[in-house]
Amino acid sequence: MCSAVLGCGAQVEPFDGGGPRDAGLGLQDAGLAPQDAGPEPQDGGGQSRCARVPTGFPATERFARERTQLDQPDDEPGAAQVHVLYVEPADVTAPRALDVQGDLRRSLEAGNGWLAHRTGGARLRFDRCDGAIDITFVKEPSLLQDAVATGFGDAAFPTPVFIRDRLVRGLRSRFAAPNKLYLIVWDGLAYGHCGGASFPPLLSDHYTALFRGGVFAATYVTQATAAGATSVTVHSTASLPSAPFDASLGAERVRVAGVNGTTLTLAQPMHRLLESLLADTTIPPCRSNPLSADGVALGYAEFAALHEVMHTLGIVPSGAPDFAPPPVAPGHVGDSVMGGGDDLMYQGAQPWTCGSFAPSPAMARCVLDAARRNYFQVTGGTGVDLARSAFLSPTPPLAVLPPNW
């Protein structure tokens, strides 16, 4: 979907569109290899084997949990399940602790509630420990908040793009259980979109991602200048409006007086290396989309998470009647689909309205393959069908894994 939150696919991240919000598998049966049972219980004496409710929260708290850097013991060992990785960049200056405070669990439970409402009860099976979604915290030393990912030495990608692929390279040696789909929540900078997903069989792996720090139509300073200088060199000016215009450069406000190639002339001195510049006309950044406040109400962020997981399950399959042709990124339904922009997997000329705020699943306008002919409960279909996915709970009869799993 080309949208303010999701962004458009490119190259090895066959993800989602990058236009403004108003722009518009049958493998083997689900006999999965069991994973390692995880770490031993943290203590004896009848204590919980899982992360506890943090100090200051009531004992009945459903979502907040102490931080853990381990994949905790699974409530359903060996079952196909989605494990969440909350990844923070090395140089973050204002940690948000979305894992500890419960923000991520509330958001994921809200999205899953909508899915259950549309499927008749089936939900995504999240990796849980004593009922709470298991979120593993990772401090990623190889990636920086506002800089080139030098730790990976990507000569072909010398800028803060293709973050999903870089994250996967750093995480796959530590998180590779054969029965788990990993949802990476990257709480750092990403350019051009708010997430990235594999799409089997075109691109097959076990990782999908959300970028909380995603920004659109952004550029950034590539060369440090002397103190007081008003001329800066940037990565790209292709998406900037004609000068003069107002913008944010990092945390400060600036006035861009002129644009000449990749050189900006500023009305006041600015010179921080690799600072992000956002014109006032730029699509709002991904963080402007709030996470569910109560685990029930939902909006763009919750639907974005579902959308990305669906891609890694192989949805929408290329043989679907309403499969969107190029230049739409692979894995979507297009303008011919019943419901248009209200479909969870839509991308096209219409607005993607699926992510509109709703106080409850029943009030959400988003639909799940309303005509039942593309990716859910498809009669006589031979492609990927969510209704047969081993990642649903309860597990459907004759459940199957994603292509090339």
Class by SSE composition: mainly beta
The whole-angstrom Rg is 22 Å
Q: Give the assembly state of these chains.
A: single chain
Residue share in β-strands: 15-25%
Record field, number of beta strands? 15
CATH class annotation of the largest domain: Alpha Beta
Shape type:
globular
CATH architecture designation of the largest domain? 3-Layer(aba) Sandwich
Order of helices and strands: EHEEEEHEEEEEEEEEHE
Number of individual domains:
2
Low-pLDDT segments, ≥5 res: 1-47, 146-158
Kindly identify the CATH topology of the largest domain: Collagenase (Catalytic Domain)
Distance between the termini: 25 Å
The average pLDDT value, as a whole number, equals 81
Tell me about this structure.
With 405 residues, the chain is mostly beta strands. The protein has two domains: 81-216 and 287-393, 3-Layer(aba) Sandwich (Collagenase (Catalytic Domain)); 219-279, no CATH class. It has helices at 103-119, 163-171, 300-312, and strands at 81-89, 123-124, 128-129, 132-133, 135-140, 180-191, 195-199, 203-215, 219-220, 231-233, 245-249, 252-260, 263-266, 276-279, 392-393. A six-stranded antiparallel beta sheet has the order 9-14-11-12-13-10, with no helix packed on it. Strands 5-1-6-8-7 form a five-stranded mixed beta sheet. A two-stranded antiparallel ribbon has the order 2-15. A hairpin with a 3-residue loop joins β7 and β8 (203-215). α1 (103-119) packs across α3 (300-312). The longest helix is centred in the first third of the chain and has 17 residues, at 103-119. It is globular, with a radius of gyration of 22 Å. It starts with 80 loop residues before the first strand and ends in a 12-residue tail after the last strand. Mean pLDDT is 81; it is low at 1-47 and 146-158.
